[in-house]
Design brief:
It contains three helices and six strands. By secondary structure, it is of the alpha+beta class.
Length: about 120
């Protein structure tokens, strides 16, 4: 079964993507991705939350908010889709994610779609 793992990071963690902490930050992610290589079907790291936008349509009016949501302490930093036997296997991979200790990992079953 396929699951999407959504990697949520804090602003402090995002700051480690560059500067003196960058090698350790990216090294941890590389090790994690190398370990799960056999189950990953797709995915990507995302640019920093300040580069994104959120669009909402309410009462036929479009509202666009640039940057991260001011209400959120954790921001989406990336995602992978994995193919594993069950939820327990997906949760085991989520637990190993470098962001799990300081941020969060969302685990979502992927809905099969015929196109």
């Amino acid at each position: 079964m396929k699951y999407m793992l959504a990697f949520y990071e804090t602003a402090e963690t995002f700051a480690h993507r560059s500067g003196p902490d960058a090698p350790a930050y990216w090294g941890a992610w590389k090790s994690y991705m190398d370990e799960m290589n056999s189950v990953v079907t797709s995915g990507s790291a995302l640019q920093g939350p300040e580069t994104g936008s959120t669009l909402r349509v309410r009462d036929a009016r479009t509202h666009v908010q640039d940057g991260p949501s001011p209400d959120s302490k954790e921001m989406l930093g990336g995602f992978v889709v994995i193919d594993v036997p069950d939820l327990d296997a997906a949760l085991a991979w989520a637990k190993k994610a470098p962001c799990a200790a300081a941020g969060a990992v969302g685990v979502y079953p992927v809905l099969p779609m015929a196109m």
